Amino acid sequence: MTEATQDFSDEQLAKARAGEAAALALLIRAHQRSVYSLALRMLGARDLAEDLTQDVFMQLNGNLKSIASNTHLVFWLRKVTTHRAIDQLRQRARMETTPLDDETPHLSTVDGGDPLLQRHLWRLLVNLSPPARAVLLLRYQEDLDPSDIARTLDMPVNTVKSHLKRSLETLRQEMPSPEPSRCEGNST
Amino acid sequence: MSEELESRLRAAFRPVAPSDEFTQNLIARVAADQRSPSNARGVRERSPKASAWWLSASMAASLLVAAGIQQHVQERRERERGLEARREVIEALRVTSQKLNLAYEVIKSQSSSPADDAPGV
Description:
heterodimer; A: mainly alpha; 10 helices; 72% helix; B: 83% helix; rod-shaped
């Protein structure tokens, strides 16, 4: 997952399971970035991502006794977050068709990336189906390999691979080249 | 090209942190949920909608059970009434049979007695 999640040990998990408030707070701090980022990039809105993050941790709190290790915890969090986000997106698709491209800060700009490029990437991301979006995020945000993604999303490995292949092909075709002059030329 | 695209995706998809205020609220809510009696018992609180559903379902189940019991009692009563009627018919037949036997004995004794009573004729 991330560096922060690796700081959380099985010993601290045992303390959180035993009801120790400090360990529980540490658990949330260690894992919230990953859960929140998955939720944000799946759902595309901060308020929805915050609601989902809260629901996931509340559900975790009720199931903490069944979590055997930190590895299991990370798997459980990814699985529950992605499945709930996919369910929400499917429900929303049945009820309305409001596009979710109103904001773009869902993508990281910490590497000094071009904001226009980030915006374009976000527009491509929202056009993917919910499972394909989840596959892409688990691959490039969580750095999982296809077999781990398949286990997390309960789908065959070949389906994961074909989602990845198709998504990357789409992105490759539609992504603008990263030359700065091109982006500057497009702005305003 | 592929590696470049993948590295751009990894850079774009780096995890982002929620606001500190959200984190504080989340920790407080989860801690409060852990302290709540329903969580201590391992029981999730039901929403009002779910409670209403459970109430309706239990009332429907109670009505079904009551109707079943009522039908069972009625069937049992009818069966008992049938058995009683059967016993009465058997008793009536037994009495009739006894009376017929008695009548047969009387007729039989009467038909044999004139020959015995007139030896001097």
